[in-house]
Design brief:
single chain; 214 residues; alpha/beta; 7 helices; binds S-adenosylmethionine
Amino acid sequence: MPTYSRLPKSANFSKIYRFYDGINSLLTLGFDKSWREKASQQLTGSTVLDLGSGTGAAEKQLIGYEVTALDPDERMLSLNNFSNKILGSAEALPFDDKSFDNIYCAFVWRNVSDTDKAFKEIKRVLKDDGNFVLLDMTRPLNMFTKRLHKLGTFITLHLIGIVTFSFKQYRFLYTSLDKLEAPESFLKESGFNSYTLERMGIFGFVYLSVLKKS
Ligand SMILES: C[S@@+](CC[C@H](N)C(=O)[O-])C[C@H]1O[C@@H](n2cnc3c(N)ncnc32)[C@H](O)[C@@H]1O
């Protein structure tokens, strides 16, 4: 597996990599699979870059595609069953221009240190008629449900952090939910020509976007 030196500081899943899939299902109340399913239905062509592939949670949804799994965290990748695995980050993609029909990116975006750089890199390695399928958690738009969501995630994530002796990591997961503006705002600055955006889940705390260069 090739190693790249400029990996982002935010890639801090190493300590919790063994529990990651279970915790993710718990936090999303098991809905993560159906959201991944919906996201994978937006794919086109045959090649997919699974950006921030982690432990390869999208394996089932990406069956039939030629997948390249990329992640900056070697331990997450050690549990990943895709055959083509690359250690790297979204901000410096080690691929030629127009290499992929799709970039699939699930539950990663709020961890990316420099999203402007990452948008540029994704646009560069995506084919002209390709799709950038972006799925992640955010905060609800409504002020009241946003507060409720903040309280719920504060309690749950800090508790899990204490129980698993990984307080710092789960604190990071909590704060990452507030790192970016709402997708309704930041997608306008993505540099892509067009995109769709749909909110899902309780209070709309998950979003799915398909961005196109054309
Ligand atoms: C919450 S996990 C999601 C993993 C997987 N995509 C899934 O759906 O379960 C976030 C992943 O993003 C990776 N990550 C963090 N910063 C990244 C970056 N700058 N570029 C690419 N991946 C990154 C982490 O190492 C971690 O494996």
